[in-house]
Amino acid sequence: xxxxxxxxxGLVQTGGSLRLSCAAAGAASGFTLDxxxxxxxxxxxxxEREGVSCISTSDRSSTxxxxxxxxxxxxxxxAKNTVYLEMSSxxxxxxxxxxxxxxxxxxxxxxxxxxxxxxDYWGQGTQVTVSS
Length: 132
Fold this sequence. Notes:
This protein has 132 residues and is mainly β. The protein has no helices and eleven strands.
């Protein structure tokens, strides 16, 4: 069992920046994120949930959906069991509830429409609103 808690959302103007955090905790003593891939998803008003980014376990390679490539950066600190999503040059269309999710093993491409079904644990989400 893995629990995820997102934070860092808020209201920002177009062109601004935010950093989201996803803190993980496990039921077992000594739990670490080392063997888990972590992804960020978002769901805008009236939209389907979509994958945004994912970071793998050991090599920390990352992947992004095209609409955020070059603007968002995902990173992880396994010692803190925390994953971050640095968002810059924010646009009104980035407005959404942002969720982190995790699964053991490899990332699933955020561009794959069924990727959300392949993640086992989810946080409650954090709202990001970008004003025009």
